[in-house]
Amino acid sequence: MRLALRVRPQRWCRVSPSVTIAIGALNGGFLALLVWSGARRHVGARWLAVLLCAIALRTVPYVLGFAGAYDRWRWLTFAPFDLTLAWGPLLWVYVTALATGQTPQRLTRHFVPVAVQLAYQLVCFALGTDAKWSWYTTTHLRLIEPVGLALGLLSLIGYLAASARVYRTWQQWLDANISSRDESRLTWLRVILLALTAVAMLGLAFGVWHWMITPLDYFGRTPLIVSLTVLVYLLGLLGWRFGPSAIPMSVANTAAPTIEPPPVDALPVETAQVEELHRGYQAQAEAWQHAVVSEGWHRDSALTLTSLAQRLGTSPRTLSRVLSEGMDTTFNDFVNRLRAREVAARIEAGDSRDVLGIAFDAGFASKASFNRAFKRHIGRTPTEVRERKTPTSGPDTSQLPPIRPLGDVRRAVE
């Protein structure tokens, strides 16, 4: 009985991590299948699905190791489960496909390292059991494995940096072209990039500990492997939930470049001429602003820089330039100020409906967008406006000149 009591906890310690990690790996496979073939499939879906499989595949050796499979069947050594050199390129292709609406060109060169990694494992796997075991316990563990770990981390970090650049460019484009700012935020993508960065740093810490302090066995590496299962779940869930609704910087959402006047500060002209040019921008901006309010175009929650430019009969670049030079604002700020002013005007006019309902009628797509814009551009809460209280949050912090008096806007919307 005493012997049995000693053995069972030992077996449980070996089997429990194996079962936990196996469940995580299977969950990653399920999420990959869901992303690949589900109704919410999108342009980057297949790349995300492959990335999920590649990460989940890395946990398989630990599932087998905890279960004792490598001790019983040494011929499993070098089974091609390690494709870590594919993680970085797959992530970058996924982010780029989402941002641009199409897969990047000339991808082969990005996957040459993983092809070499896979070929090495297949060649070693084809060796006889004794030969592969001898190679594994000597040259591989002493030289190949640390070099592979370093290359894998460098690849992942490099492609994370490239993906972060795409993310920043994409977010800047969304801020400049999409009026519903909160609905176009890429917070979920930032979480994905931060999660992968955290796992990369954790892998670096474990590698340094293993090679410079004391070797780690399967049990010592358990936290790292468990983090991979969590990472798979996080990537799959966020990608499935938000990927299909991502707004790409596609050709359909942009316009061909047009010949623009050079920036004011680049013109070698007199001060009077600079002021005249600025007044021209300002007059054009005010004329377009009047047209937008008169037609009620700002009430379109799906309004974009491109769609508004088409309605005004100009190009997106010209519209963006006129708003910048003539009103010192961005498209997003311009539209949401008009919306906030309309909500305030309707409240002052005695509209007794729910404030959120008024906000939706004015073009806001969410409560978060409305609250942020109203606070920024009105300087009061809707309740204070309804009760005609004095602003308590200070003057309007916007850099825009006054659009129209609230009374004028109120008459326009009645």
Summarize the structure.
This protein is mainly alpha-helical and 414 residues long. Helices cover 68% and strands 0% of the residues.
List keywords for this structure.
414 residues, mainly alpha, single chain
Can you offer a commentary on this structure?
The chain is 68% helix and 0% strand. It has helices at residues 2-37, 45-58, 60-66, 69-72, 87-100, 112-125, 129-177, 187-213, 222-242, 271-295, 305-312, 316-327, 331-348, 355-361, 367-378, 382-386, 406-413. Helix 5 (87-100) packs parallel to helix 7 (129-177), helix 10 crosses helix 12 (316-327) and helix 13 crosses helix 15 (367-378). The chain is elongated and about 85 Å long. 32% of the residues are buried.
Distance between the termini: 87 Å
Secondary-structure element sequence?
Answer: HHHHHHHHHHHHHHHHH
> Which structural class should the secondary elements be placed in?
mainly alpha
CA-atom Rg in angstroms? 29 Å
Helix content: 55-70%
On the 0-100 scale, what is the average pLDDT? 81
Residues in β-strands, percent: under 5%
Uncertain residue ranges: 1-13, 251-267, 389-414
How many helices? The count is 17
Largest beta-sheet characterization: none
Shape: elongated
- For the secondary structure, the number of strands is 0
